[in-house]
Design goal:
The structure holds two protein chains of two kinds.
Chain A: H1 2-11, E1 34-36, H2 47-51, E2 57-59, E3 63-66, H3 75-79, E4 85-87, E5 102-104, H4 118-124, E6 128-134, H5 140-147, E7 160-162, E8 171-175, H6 180-192, E9 198-202, H7 204-208, E10 230-232, H8 239-249
Parallel strand pairs in A: 6-7, 6-8, 8-9, 9-10
Antiparallel strand pairs in A: 1-4, 2-3, 3-5
Chain B: E1 4-5, E2 11-13, E3 19-20, H1 22-34, E4 38-46, E5 52-61, E6 66-75, E7 78-80, H2 90-100, E8 103-105, E9 148-153, E10 165-171, E11 174-181, H3 189-193, H4 201-206, H5 213-228, H6 234-262, H7 266-287, E12 296-297, E13 300-301, H8 307-332, H9 335-341, H10 349-355, H11 359-364, H12 371-374, H13 395-418, E14 436-444, E15 447-455, E16 461-467, H14 469-480, H15 489-496, H16 500-504
Parallel strand pairs in B: 3-6, 7-8
Antiparallel strand pairs in B: 1-6, 2-14, 4-5, 5-6, 9-10, 10-11, 12-13, 14-15, 15-16
Helix pairs in contact in B: 5-6, 6-7, 6-13, 6-15, 7-8, 8-13, 13-15
Classes of the chains: A alpha/beta, B alpha+beta.
Chain lengths: ~260, ~500
């Protein structure tokens, strides 16, 4: 008992002050959005498009990147013969509509999901109970959702909680591309959530299929099966990205954040 | 005829793998296992003729630090099951049945592994083409009797965890039998790897099991390098090993926190939840990603370190080390924690051996198998981490092995950081050797990770087998529940903390 009290003093109070204070610093090597720094691509160069493992980059005629598909890997940056692609430190990435995740590759900055409509915000703004469904990813997204429950992040202080039953939930938080083998379980879980309900998809798997995009064994994301209210991209998204998205949806971030 | 020795992390020409007739092949397997060897892999591959299937086996001899490969070719739609004699083959044979539509004749419990269609025109269960397959859709082992009841859990669980279905046969609170049905996470990675390597291959490896990104990526890189005859730098190997140990630290610490949480001991539970993140952030300090995505590339590493980064790493690690000792030390002197850990979910050494358990679960039951010592590759051939073994085989032992390993991993990383070999240009990976077989075994934090690759005449992947440690150990969890209170399931489960996606692939 005595040692536990001493340990408590040694370990101290560690819940981050965010969003009242600035977000905790990320690794200087953190990979946010892949950004094309200068636009003088030699004509016909397709190096980044060909290197991307998931077909996230296309020419239209500018280079566009689908951050919903993006794995935030190194491949496009390494492939660019001019070294013109680098990842920015932008962690604020979330959207209410799938197409909002497609952006010019030369553009940096936050993708900010709009808050819920007034009535839904009134219902969920201060108390949001979510049932998490893991449906075929690699479990890293689940791990970083779990991180939000630790004392460092303390998701509960925003009134957001993961609950054990869909019947107690206001919505689903889905990870994974939704494998064929999880489709039925996901549908049943969704049906068991009382109306009105939200669907939040976390990670490039659940947004677009992730590394498994195009596989016959999975569905290329939950959006092909259910109406989605919030997309949070990343492979996996940093806990800060997930928190940012959730708080934006609930309109809980200070103006300008 | 005998199996051929194959060095871990090397490739050999396919025609040097002895193709044995079935009786020789079966005898070699049985003989090896009788002498204490483990089956690291046993899998099918397309045969030379339309109606034949090749079966490959990899045996690991932990005492002699050797690995062996052998192969046989079977005709038609069946092969004799050896599970009756060699228990640890049970799931391998079921996988061969599912992937290749071959019936292992005499298998005592022939059920699908992942509930997916076979890669051939055959189906081991004669199911019709359109018939929907649902994991957990088959019959379960049933205990009958007046007061016996059945508890079904999953696939969607109460926490933020992966899907699986658990069927308990209970008498009151006591569990007589637990059967686990998986496959919900199956996303077809092995099939997608065929014809590679391509631009997705490394990403598949990094997401086979996200919490083992570095473990699986290490094995894949070793396979690719072995097949391309590529000499990676000593520096890259040290950075990889540091990554691998960081992965072990984060997960072991997270597990001890979760175990503490399960027995209601909140101090260690909340401290460890946070400290786990500190180690993940150390991985991010190396490569920008908390799970190690991008740290490894075939031929070397994606990120180097300079003096300033090493200094910062060491500064942080010194602090985390103190906090880790402080948080976890509380567990072992708390009587209520120990009362719940001790004697719960016991697995004897004999059973662990018979089931072919690996990793901390095996070492907790007294088995001396740790690939870092017994099948070393990379930097572990020069800098060894002493093996941590316990013998009580209960939740306590599985927790305590983790604690011992945490201490040794921290020491190892500190030592390695002090002596990182000088930077050298990293080699480029050339084409893979054709008609070869490559093997890579590494000790991930859950246990042995075994990858086997077979290339075709063009140097493309004709078969890539992944054996995640969970594939060996799920049966261990089921066994650990025998005659336990059903309320001890969460505790037993966390003491194994197995991967669903690593199993389901
Ligand atoms: S970061 Fe990776 S996944 Fe994203 S666009 Fe670049 S290559 Fe594609
Ligand atoms: S998005 Fe990436 S990290 Fe998340 S589950 Fe899918 S593969 Fe894993």
């Amino acid at each position: 008992m005595w040692r536990a009290i001493v340990a408590r003093l040694v370990q101290g109070h560690r819940t981050i002050k965010y969003p009242r204070k600035p977000a905790p610093p990320l690794s200087d090597r953190f990979r946010g959005r892949p950004i094309l720094a200068d636009l003088s691509c030699p004509s016909g160069c397709q190096a980044c498009i060909e290197a991307c493992p998931v077909g996230a980059i296309r020419q239209d005629p500018r280079l566009m990147v689908d951050l919903g598909r993006c794995l935030f890997c190194l491949d496009c940056a390494l492939a660019c013969p001019r070294g013109a692609i680098a990842h920015s430190a932008e962690y604020r990435l979330s959207a209410r509509a799938r197409e909002d995740l497609v952006a010019p590759m030369a553009e940096d900055g936050a993708l900010k999901a709009a808050a819920l409509e007034r009535r839904m915000r009134g219902l969920f703004g201060r108390s949001l109970k979510l049932r998490q469904v893991s449906a075929g990813g690699c479990n890293a997204c689940e791990a970083d959702v779990n991180v939000l429950g630790t004392i460092g992040w303390d998701l509960g202080r925003f009134g957001i909680q993961m609950v054990a039953s869909p019947r107690h939930a206001d919505g689903l938080l889905i990870t994974g591309p939704v494998t064929r083998n999880m489709e039925l379980a996901l549908r049943k879980t969704y049906d068991a959530v009382p109306e009105p309900k939200l669907v939040i998809v976390v990670g490039s798997c659940a947004v677009a299929g992730g590394p498994f995009i195009g596989h016959a064994e999975a569905n290329d994301g939950a959006g092909n099966l259910l109406p989605v209210d919030l997309y949070i991209p990343g492979c996996p998204p940093h806990p800060l990205t997930i928190l940012d998205g959730l708080l934006r949806l609930l309109g809980r971030l200070p103006r300008g954040a | 005829m005998k199996f051929t020795p194959i060095a871990n992390g090397y490739s050999i020409p396919l025609d040097s793998v002895p193709a044995l007739g079935w009786p020789d092949f079966a005898a070699c397997l049985a003989d090896g296992v009788r002498r204490g060897q483990r089956v690291s892999a046993y899998f099918g591959a397309a045969g030379a003729r339309p109606d034949s299937t090749k079966l490959y086996a990899i045996l690991a001899d932990d005492e002699a630090n050797q690995t062996f490969a052998g192969l046989t070719e079977v005709e038609g739609g069946s092969f004799p099951s050896l599970t009756g004699e060699i228990t640890q083959l049970h799931l391998f044979e079921r996988e061969i049945a599912e992937q290749f539509g071959l019936v292992p004749v005499g298998h005592p419990w022939l059920k699908p592994v992942r509930s997916v269609r076979s890669w051939t025109k055959r189906d081991a269960w004669q199911r019709k083409a359109g018939e929907p397959l649902v994991p957990g859709g088959c019959d379960f082992f049933k205990v009958e009797g007046d007061e016996v009841h059945e508890v079904a859990v999953g696939p969607v669980h109460a926490g933020v965890i992966e899907p699986g279905h658990f069927r308990f046969q209970c008498h009151g609170e006591e569990v007589y039998h637990l059967e686990i049905a998986l496959g919900y996470q199956h996303r077809g990675i092995e099939a997608a790897l065929l014809g590679g390597p391509d631009r997705r291959s490394l990403h598949y490896m990094e997401t086979l099991a996200g919490d083992t990104t570095i473990g699986h990526a290490t094995s894949y890189c070793q396979i690719a390098e072995a097949l391309a005859k590529c000499q990676k730098t000593a520096r890259a190997q040290v950075i990889r090993a540091i990554g691998l140990e960081l992965e072990r630290l984060a997960n072991h610490i997270g597990d001890l926190g979760a175990l503490a949480g399960d027995v209601g001991y909140l101090p260690t539970s909340s401290f460890c939840g946070r400290i786990r993140g500190d180690y993940l952030n150390l991985t991010a300090l190396l490569c920008g990603n908390r799970f190690g995505r991008g740290l490894l590339r075939p031929g070397g590493v994606g990120f180097d370190v300079d003096e300033a980064r090493v200094a910062e790493f060491r500064r942080r690690l010194a602090i985390f080390k103190k906090e880790t000792y402080n948080a976890i030390g509380l567990l072992w002197e708390n009587q209520s924690v120990m009362a719940r850990f001790e004697d719960t979910g016991r697995i004897s050494k004999a059973i662990a051996l018979e089931l072919g358990l690996v990793g901390p679960a095996a070492r907790a039951s007294g088995l001396a198998c740790d690939a870092r010592c017994t099948q070393p590759s990379g930097i572990f051939r020069f800098a060894q981490i002493p093996m941590s073994v316990q013998d009580s085989g209960d939740v306590f032992a599985r927790a305590f092995v983790r604690w011992l390993e945490i201490q040794k991993s921290i020491d190892f990383i500190q030592e390695q950081l002090a002596v990182i070999p000088a930077a050298m240009p990293q080699p480029l990976l050339g084409p893979l050797a054709p008609d070869s077989l490559a093997l890579s075994i590494n000790e991930g934090w859950r246990g042995e990770i075994c990858h086997v690759a077979i290339t075709d005449s063009n140097g493309r992947l004709a078969r890539y087998k992944v054996v995640d440690p969970s594939f060996h150990n799920w049966a261990g969890l089921a066994y650990a529940l025998r005659n336990q209170e059903i309320s001890d399931f969460p505790l037993c489960n966390k003491s194994f903390n197995l991967s669903y996606c690593g199993h389901d692939l």
